[in-house]
């Protein structure tokens, strides 16, 4: 096989181990009802399986349609590394690092201690102003909305997060199911920010805004010093794609109603 699966931070990753990619081996992709209300993906007459060898099943039609669409839009070769919804489902199904909900929550909350928007520079003044103008409104939103104190700091150690804040967020994350937590942790790791991830999932900001806010200092430096344009565009596109997929995964895995294929295509 041209790809090798490894588990990193509890998420399946696909690494390229040869210049070749796996040739597409199917023509038709379809969805069928499985046991217990689950949905299965069929590649011609074959049932899709996870990297761990389990039967691939999605808990609702919305996720099944999203995954089927990823397989259906592949061309002559299968680019597994671009199939984010499939990867997230595989991670939730296989749980390759055998983590519990509590362990996922603890891992996610560690990012609050080093949250992107909590670290502030002391100079140059133009970047200080940019961080204050762009990050403070989101920080104020989450503090008021969740009744917590987070704060920001120019100290390399970052702000000291009160235990009450950690407890509030831990309780909130505990309300998510295992699948949704898998997606939420993924979004947090992409943005390197609990604050931005919550703002995105709560639809306070868009994917584009979340990504730009997470890259604020980098974009500032690029504006001053320049960068390889195509490389920057690729990085930005890939981060948007991963973040959008994670956010959709959270919403879809929390969704109990069915979604018609036509709605997804539209």
UniProtKB/TrEMBL annotation:
Keyword line: Chaperone, Membrane, Mitochondrion, Mitochondrion inner membrane, Transit peptide
Subcellular location(s) per record: Mitochondrion inner membrane
Cited Gene3D superfamilies: ATP12 ATPase, ATP12-like
Membrane topology: Peripheral membrane protein
Principal localisation: mitochondrion
InterPro entries per record: ATP12_ATP_synth-F1-assembly (IPR011419), ATP12_ATP_synth-F1-assembly_N (IPR042272), ATP12_ortho_dom_sf (IPR023335)
GO cellular component terms given for this protein: mitochondrial inner membrane
GO BP term, example: mitochondrial proton-transporting ATP synthase complex assembly
Keyword Disulfide bond applies: no
Role: Plays a role in the assembly of the F1 component of the mitochondrial ATP synthase (ATPase).
Sequence similarity: Belongs to the ATP12 family.
Subunit record text: Interacts with ATP5F1B; involved in the assembly of the F1 component of the mitochondrial ATP synthase (ATPase). Interacts with FMC1.
Protein name: ATP synthase mitochondrial F1 complex assembly factor 2
Organism: Oncorhynchus mykiss
